[in-house]
């Protein structure tokens, strides 16, 4: 697992435990996903390029740094990636957001896109795919393929929890893609859920079943 960055910060780990708890309400669950994504973003953006500018403080001129020379785009996978995007937007309100909707084809069981709307300059942006659960890796692979078709060269994955199977698949197929996660859990069960995981992210976030 060479391309994986595990966010071990105590605040993040504490909130992941609260997410796992089956007693956590819909409201708390949504808030936790947003908060954890915001905290993870700190690590994802650690190496962004900076340039120095001059700014006038009430006291004097200061040489100070701003982010420069990079375009970022969030790409939440519908629907559970949306809360992750909301968390990140709260600290980067101008960030562009593309959306990818996928469903599982009944015959082949392969993910198929039903919606894909990306920023027009996506090919010159770094795209960060948001998917709370990197489970089998099928949806994330489909999202990466859609981005690659649009000539996106720089792709990162942000997931709250991953399975070792999902991580292995992404690492083998896309050795240049970095994966940011808070935990790599034990594995997948026969229904493709992460164990122990936190259940169905979409259902817990939106109160559906
Ligand atoms: N999708 C989810 O929402 N949960 C899992 O455990 C796996 C895939």
Description:
There is one protein chain. Helix content is 32%, strand content 30%. With 209 residues, it is an alpha/beta fold. Strands 1, 4, 5, 6, 7, 8, 10 and 12 form an 8-stranded mixed beta sheet that branches. A 3-stranded parallel beta sheet has the order 9-11-13. A two-stranded antiparallel sheet has the order 2-3. Strand 2 (50-56) and strand 3 (61-67) form a beta hairpin. The longest helix has 19 residues, at 26-44. The chain is globular, with a radius of gyration of 18 Å. Uracil binds at residues 133, 135, 192-194, 197, 200-202.
* Radius of gyration over all CA atoms, rounded: 18 Å
Order of helices and strands: EHHEEEHEEEEEHEEHEEEEH
Give the CA-CA distance, first to last residue: 33 Å
CATH architecture group name: 3-Layer(aba) Sandwich
Total strands: 15
Unreliable residue stretches: none
For the sheet with most strands, the description reads: 8 strands, mixed
Highest-level CATH class: Alpha Beta
By secondary-structure content and strand pairing, the structural class works out as: alpha/beta
> How many domains comprise the coordinates?
1
């Amino acid at each position: 697992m060479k391309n994986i960055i595990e966010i071990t910060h105590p605040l993040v780990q504490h909130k992941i435990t609260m997410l796992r708890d089956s007693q956590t309400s819909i409201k708390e669950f949504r808030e936790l996903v947003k908060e954890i994504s915001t905290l993870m973003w700190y690590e994802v953006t650690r190496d962004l390029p900076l340039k120095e500018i001059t700014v006038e403080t009430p006291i004097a001129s200061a040489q100070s740094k701003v982010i420069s020379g990079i375009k970022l785009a969030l790409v939440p996978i519908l629907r559970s990636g949306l809360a992750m995007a909301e968390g990140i937007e709260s600290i980067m309100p101008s960030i562009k957001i593309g959306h990818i909707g996928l469903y599982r084809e009944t015959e082949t069981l392969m993910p198929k896109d039903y919606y894909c709307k990306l920023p027009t300059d996506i090919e010159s942006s770094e795209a960060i795919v948001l998917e709370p659960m990197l489970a089998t890796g099928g949806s994330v692979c489909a999202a990466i393929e859609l981005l690659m078709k649009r000539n996106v060269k720089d792709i990162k994955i942000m997931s709250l929890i991953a399975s070792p199977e999902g991580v292995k698949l992404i690492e083998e197929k896309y050795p240049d893609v970095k994966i940011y996660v808070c935990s790599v859990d034990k594995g997948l069960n026969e229904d493709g859920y992460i164990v122990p995981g936190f259940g169905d992210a979409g259902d817990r976030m939106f109160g559906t079943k």
